From TrEMBL:
Name assigned to this protein: Oxidoreductase
MF terms (GO), sorted A to Z: 2 iron, 2 sulfur cluster binding; metal ion binding; oxidoreductase activity
The species this protein was found in: Aliishimia ponticola
FAD-binding FR-type domain ranges (all copies): 1-103
Gene3D superfamilies xrefs: 3.10.20.30, Nucleotide-binding domain of ferredoxin-NADP reductase (FNR) module (3.40.50.80), Translation factors (2.40.30.10)
Cytoplasm recorded as keyword: no
Length: 316
């Protein structure tokens, strides 16, 4: 369901991060999110839907808070958000939705946020604290001078569980996965969010150290995704439409030309909006959304970026 929200407060924090509070325009109550949830926010100026993790306490009933990094390398979403999100501005919003849920049964959770990737971790830390669970939040940034959210984190009742790591400090201060990751165990869960290279490093190191993939939870904000490849055919079982997806096309775009619409938002395989059921065919997964298990099952595809070999039959 799409709802209109108003910017009720904005703080320009360090590191080019705007902290934006949103309240429903009609004064209705907030659907309470679960820790790790995000909002889908529509930016009309650039005609993009963008996903922003909630950093507010999931128990907060008056507002949602997000953090937005102004990233000159983005496709324009974050710059538009910085320009448009002034107090009183209105946005079409869907959600909250959660593709990065917390396992609240874990004995021990380790939250690892790189830069703006700390946002879902702040909500998770609040929730774990409320549950009385054991956890540590590792917050990694380039330097103290660009580290946002420190006022919130220093005042939080879980402040002593936050460990800061700055790239410009000596080696002892930096994140050292050999030292900072706990030993692998069934009840130990890791959560990582941040730049793609940072995440890949944490995930591969954790898995090499014996952490089971299902205990290493991840959320990509964006991804460098290669969209092109050999052409292939897509048959839509329900509508009877068959198209050839060209070398530089995506499934969603090729089908849209024939009037078969698949909803897309991020268009880079991270948000899950375009997930489509597959009845048969070989999938070349290019997304960062599906788990290894889901890829092996082979019965869904992200139509904004993933491809097929030969012919795919979709259940649409
Ligand atoms: S539109 Fe976001 S994963 Fe495809």
């Amino acid at each position: 369901m799409t709802q209109t929200f108003t910017v009720s407060n904005r703080v320009d924090d360090r590191g080019n991060i705007a902290r934006i509070r949103l309240t429903p325009e009609d004064g209705s109550g907030l659907p309470l999110p679960t820790a790790g949830a995000h909002l889908d926010i529509y930016l009309p100026e650039v005609d993009l839907w963008r996903q922003y993790s909630l950093c507010s306490d999931p128990a907060e009933t008056a507002f949602y808070e997000i953090g937005v990094l102004k990233d000159p390398n983005s496709r324009g979403g974050s710059e538009a958000m910085h320009r448009l999100a002034t107090p009183g501005a209105r946005f079409k919003i869907e959600g909250p939705r959660n593709h990065f849920p917390l396992d609240e049964t874990a004995d021990h959770s380790v939250l690892i946020g790189g830069g703006i990737g700390v946002t879902p971790m702040i909500a998770m830390a609040a929730r774990l604290h409320a549950l009385g669970k054991a956890f540590t939040l590792h917050y990694c940034t380039r330097s103290a001078e660009v580290t946002a959210f420190t006022d919130t984190l220093c005042a939080a009742p879980f402040a002593e569980r936050v460990v800061y790591h700055f790239d410009d400090q000596d080696a002892d201060q930096k994140l050292d996965l050999e030292r900072d990751l706990p030993p692998a165990a069934d009840g130990t869960h890791l959560y990582v969010c941040g730049p793609q290279g940072f995440m890949d490093w944490v995930i591969s190191t954790a898995e090499a150290a014996g952490h089971q993939p299902q205990n290493v939870h991840r959320e990509y904000f964006s991804a460098d995704v290669e969209l092109s490849g050999d052409s292939f055919d897509v048959e839509c079982a329900q509508s009877g439409v068959t198209v050839t997806v060209g070398a530089d096309e995506t499934i969603a775009k090729a089908l849209a030309k024939e009037g078969v619409m698949i909803e897309v938002k991020c268009e880079e395989g991270v948000c899950g909006t375009c997930m489509t059921d597959v009845l048969s065919g070989e999938i070349e997964h290019r997304d960062q959304f599906l788990t290894d298990e889901e890829r092996e099952d082979g019965d869904v595809i992200m139509a904004c970026c993933s491809r097929g070999k030969g012919k795919l039959v979709l259940d649409i």
